[in-house]
Design brief:
It is built from 6 helices and 5 strands, in the order βαβαβαβαβαα. It is an alpha/beta fold. The chain has one domain (2-145): Sugar-phosphate isomerase, RpiB/LacA/LacB (Ribose 5-phosphate Isomerase B, Chain: A). It is globular, with a radius of gyration of 15 Å. The N and C termini lie far apart (38 Å).
Amino acid sequence: MRIAIAADHNGLAMKAHLIDWLTGHGHQADDRGATDGDEVVDYPPLCEDVCRRVADGRADRGIVVGGSGMGETVACNKLPLIRASLCHDLFTTEIARGNNDSNVLVLGAKIISLDLAEQILATWLTTPFKGGRHRVRVDQIAALERGETLL
């Protein structure tokens, strides 16, 4: 799987660890930055880069790592065709993929350990979208994204 990945200054160590994990498990990791741990980096441009790659098909999925992941999740979900999910445990990860067809994973490097990040990533990559009633809801989210009303 082709995965675009980026991190702000808070997530650099986790990003590097996850890139090694991804490549070790046969995935193509496209490191989109940041690279310098001594400089504070704004996350919105990194989120935009990863999400545009997912939306236009240059990446199958995306990963963004921040301190808490909150701002990154907000920024990612401003872009069309993106369903970014902030996951801090395996249950929310399974819901993100199974129910919401998440295509961007957001992780908080100040919240979870590297070991848990690996478990979340493995779960996120292997959990299939359930479809069915969940497809209807994802389609409704897409309609909202297009400016349509559901009322």
